[in-house]
Amino acid sequence: MKKVLLFSLLVVLQAIAFGQKPRARDIGVPFDGVPGKHNAVTDVPGVEVGYSTLIAGEGPLIEGKGPVRTGVTVILPKGKTGTPYAAAWYSLNGDGELTGIPYIEDYGFGYNAIGITNTNSVGVVRDAIGQWSHSKFSQGEAVDYSFGLPIAGETWDGGLNDINGYHVKKEHVWEALESAHGGKIQEGNVGGGTGMALYDFKGGSGTASRVFEIDSVQYTLGVFIQANFGSREELTIAGVPVGKEIQDLAYIFDETRRKDGSAIVVVITDAPLLPNQLKQVAKRITHGIARTGTYSHDGSGEIFLAISTAAPKYNTAGTREAWEVIPKWHLNPIYKATVEATEEAIINVLLAADDMVGINGNAWFALPAGRLIPVLKKYNRLKE
User: Fold this and answer.
1) CA gap 296, 278 in Å, rounded
2) What is residue 1's predicted lDDT score, i.e. its pLDDT?
3) What is the pLDDT, as a whole number, of residue 17?
4) How many alpha carbons fall within 13 Å on the CB side of residue 374?
5) pLDDT of 1-26, one tens digit each?
6) Counting CB atoms within 10 angstroms of each CB, which of 17, 109, 170, 278 has the fewest?
7) Can you tell me the distance from the alpha carbon of 197 to that of 365, in angstroms, rounded to the nearest whole number?
8) What's the CA gap between 83 and 249, in Å, rounded?
9) Nearest CA to 153 among 111, 125, 130?
10) What value, to the nearest 5°, has the Cα angle with vertex 73 and ends 28 and 125?
11) Do 112 and 150 form a contact (C-beta atoms < 8 A)?
12) Which residues of the chain have pLDDT under 50?
């Protein structure tokens, strides 16, 4: 075990030397399952993620001026196209917002980009996605692409950010959309996750993926989370009560403004699934979050979205639609991948985030890998 600890610390030092922070798997956190190439939602073919991060000012809160600690994240399940995708949603606790839900509930489809931002910026993000989509995809008689009913979700960053200053603008959303890409993506204090907290450490944006086989066919599933929830004593990593073991690095916060946090989670897979099956996938996100310790506080909005990029086939006239789907009795590998990737994405948030000071000197501190490794070693939970 001493060799494992030395190796894990070496990984941390090497990452720091190259200006990077190690991810949870890099330091030996013993996650189950096999990740994709980038261990990210972008491992699913065609998926793109973009950010616009807004950080400005310091000192006392001046509403409308700052300090600003916020942003917007966009996820494009089928890249920069107007192609619909099968979708379903699930609310673990509804103290939050995700637009476009009635359409998804009744028709089982979503359209184009998904936005995630702070609570007060849902409207502008939703509208900006609609405007961008209209400018890109409306042709001929399709003059109002915004009927695609854009999907936008939120978590509350008012502890660090001038949330009532409404600093996220249309141009920031378009910046995120235009810069969205596949491959490796940033985590931590970026995009909509910029001003968030997680288990009373610094929170933010995180991702993970899994590859798995069903009847010799390989599929990929990715998770993206904007994480802003939980109390310190709840934090559990690989079964270890990390939050109880690390009692310092306490946040600095005016308790009169304290609110419960939330989580917006998006699961995307290329496995062919019907919307009702995706509903079952969305429910399994709950288990992944629970593995990290939270019981979902009363004021915490946990709202989840599950998507399949596999498309149905249509006849020439467009009068018939045919789906090729995985039957119910073969869905367990998908459920398992969802739980595993959700858990890992959350821990990746904690390790990717950096200390941040915001309005009125409020501050949350990151969970350093160098502090986590000895705690996991104490409980014999470092991977050989």
Assistant:
1) 22
2) 52
3) 45
4) 6
5) 555 555 555 555 455 444 579 999 99
6) 17
7) 9
8) 46
9) 125
10) 160
11) yes
12) 13, 16-18
Measured between alpha carbons, how far is 357 from 305 in angstroms, rounded to an integer? 31
What does the DSSP 8-state code read for residue 167?
Answer: -
320-366 pLDDT, tens digit per residue, is 999 999 999 999 999 999 999 999 999 999 999 999 999 999 999 99
Pairing of strands 262-269, 321-322: unpaired
Q: Say what the pTM is.
A: 0.94
Nearest to 170 by CA among 128, 116, 129: 128
**How much is the pLDDT for 6?**
54
Please, are residues 132 and 284 in contact by the beta-carbon 8 Å criterion?
no
155 burial class (0-12, 13-18, 19+ CB within 10 angstroms)? buried
Report CA torsion sign: 279, 285, 290, 295: negative
Measured CA distances, 180 to 51, 79, 123 (Å):
7, 8, 20
Amino acid at 307: I
Q: 320: how many CB neighbours lie within 10 A of its CB?
A: 10
* Sign of the CA dihedral running 192, 193, 194, 196: positive
List the helix and strand counts (H, then E) for the chain: 8, 16
Bridge partners, 240 (sequence order): 237
CA separation for the pair 23, 206 (Å, rounded): 10
What is d(CA 133, CA 62) in angstroms, rounded to the nearest whole number?
34
CATH 3.30.300.20 fits 32-367, yes or no: no
Question: What integer pLDDT is reported at residue 20 of this predicted model?
Answer: 77
Q: At 90, phi and psi to the nearest 5?
A: -150, 135
